[in-house]
Amino acid sequence: MAEIAYGESKLEVASGHFNASSQLVLAGHHHAYPYSASDDEIPTVDYSLLFSDNPDQRLLALEYLRQACHEFGFFYLVNHTIPDRVFDGVLKGVSNFFDPTTRDERRIYSKKDSSDKIRWGFNSSDIENREYLKVITHPQYHVLSDSAGFSKILEEYCKEMRTIVIGLARAVSKTLGLEENYIEKAFNLKSGFDLTAMNLYPPNSRSKGAVGLPKHTDPGFVITLVQDINGGLQILSHKGKWINAHIPHHAILIQLGDHLEILTNGKYKSHIHRVIVDNNKLQRISLVTLHGPSLDKFMSPGIDFVDEEHPQKYCGMTYKDSLEANGGDEIDVESSLEKLKLV
Fold first, then answer.
1. What is the pLDDT of residues 129-144, one digit of tens each?
2. Contacts with 182 (C-beta within 8 Å, 6 or more apart), sequence order
């Protein structure tokens, strides 16, 4: 969370606009800035072309998707099916939910026990700076207690996003040369465990450190992310190079999850990412959903990806057990990828 050749990629890309500082001057000396990142381009996949009636367009779009999955492990998704009103409405709802004058009211969602379906938290330290709310949104959507209709808006957004994720599962299956419903079956996505996290990252004037969220990978099939403004999200490439994410307006950032890496025996890999806030003049909101297998699904490398030349690289475990392998709860959705690696 494999090396790639950026210069030879045929992928369509969206250019970035944010330049992270690469040096910091302290006490009259130049010190390497520990969170520098490049503005290398990130591939852009056109969702509509993956299902085009034109077979040539569809094949080309699937090849773009294959390259994005194999050479990068993350990409922007454009021309998807989420209406603008839903996109804008849910981000406005998240912003309203995090009204600084009502923080005490949100404490009703603080951790109670391991069976929490909704959990709120606030961290302000040298290793993490964010307020968040996590909600289990599938297979059962857990309703927030609110009077402004936000829970209904969030539910609509989650339903729209699941439709896209099922479409992606079918397209990704095709890029692997397998039947269209291969990933749906392998993950039992019909009963998949989805966790949606709403994050509020403070501007640098209010943070107690440079890091909004420490580096990590995420479990599941894919992770979908939308946000209100750019700034701070960085992804580690196959080459070991940090890249700033500059998500186009109304696009979705797709990142491959740990369990797609496990299923494909490392052919498609998840990627380490982090959030850095010390260059941000404004607060930033993100809405992230981890789309996983059903909790009882035993996940291990598929037989199509294991042979004499490609020995099994990961041990098998149910999704629930993998989420709890580091001592966390289901709702913590912690990665246990390193523990599952055999080589």
1. 999 999 999 999 999 9
2. 173, 176
